[in-house]
# Entry
Amino acid sequence: MKVMVIGNGGREHALAWCIAKSRRISKVFVAPGNAGTALDPNLTNVPITATAELIDFAKREKIELTVVGPEAPLAAGVVDAFRDAGLKIFGPTRYAAQLESSKDFAKAFMQRHGIPTAGYQTFSDAAAAHGYIDSRGAPIVIKADGLAAGKGVVVAMSLEEAHRAIDMMLLDNRMGDAGARVVIEDFLQGEEASFIVMVDGEHVLPLATSQDHKRLLDNDQGPNTGGMGAYSPAPVVTPEVHARVMREIIMPTVRGMKADGHPYTGFLYAGLMIDAKGNPFTIEFNCRLGDPETQPIMARLKSDLTVLLEHGVRGTLDKVEAEWDRRVALGVVLAAEGYPDAPKKGDPISGIPPEAEDGVVFHAGSTQDEAGQVRTNGGRVLCAVGLGDSVRMAQSRAYALADQIHFAGMQLRRDIGARALHRRH
Ligand code: ATP
# Structure
């Protein structure tokens, strides 16, 4: 069986790595991939990104299944185009991907279907937005409606900050079209977790839970990033919380999309805020796997991912279960100098340890030059994942891997997993 993974991040390296473990696989293509997928003898990079070329390639190579990593191609309709061409692909249609690509769409959907989320209103007029903020008070959250690569959200702790965010998005147009409309949302308090499931239009297969670390610096300080590390499972998602998330958030979403005439297919990611009483609220939906959550999740998946994906495409996810490594997996992101504002590219990377039974380093923003030297090529460069019988063991394994790696200006958090450790003791 031939499979193609679309994307070039750490998430896609982890997906392709996991798919390649299947005995049913003859070839795994990654389009366009990174240095990690290029170096892996089980994977083949394909230097294309345009949808029409991907379709031609998939037909020519007789690729039986395609999986999409990032949100941009999904929001642009890659799934619709593949299906129109008679090709099998796992992901949401362009319409369904609006659960991520338009925050106003997602909020209106949640309200219509009674899914717990923060109260909100949407504005395109700055004066009206300022008035609403004054009436609600701070803290309050301002979000650009469209895709903004994780940079479109301002959690304003003061009214002044909230007003500035409105001016930045609606008057100065600093987020472009993505910020032409803003969603203003009530501030939620609690602990965040990532809840990712596979959906076939009707049935749901939950993946292992996880927790991301969004801020650049230790103790959740510094600017927001794409994510600086993650571990799985997330102890905040107790069996009771898990059942409630499925009942109150995931199933109503899947049923709601079907009832609206646009069944959801693909990975669905609910970003949760779990309050002190264990009540789950939806902060956001993503229409794909999380990055870096995918790296520890895939490190724990013992089932054949191609089997799960095929059930996802066929509409038979109710016939299959996922088996997980009982160990904890913990991933530490190694980011480039200057990340997240202006990541420096081109620095040589050395010391990447080989894969072992209890750890693996996934690549993200990396490339190989003509001489074969691996260099930095993006904000988040690598993710070192350790596996262990406890959070502490997984953590020390992940940092042991990370500490062998060198590149100029490397940034990493030293406290990935601290929240889980705190909970357990
Ligand atoms: P991502 O990069 O995860 O896709 P995004 O740009 O889509 O992010 P959100 O996930 O909606 O934005 O918000 C980013 C972060 O802001 C959240 O992870 C959370 O920490 C914080 N946040 C968002 N909404 C709220 C809220 N209503 N109350 C408190 N914090 C919030």
In short: The chain has 14 helices and 22 strands. Residues 2-92 form a domain with the Rossmann fold fold (CATH 3.40.50.20). Residues 239-259 form the longest helix (21 residues). The first strand starts at residue 2 and ends at 7.
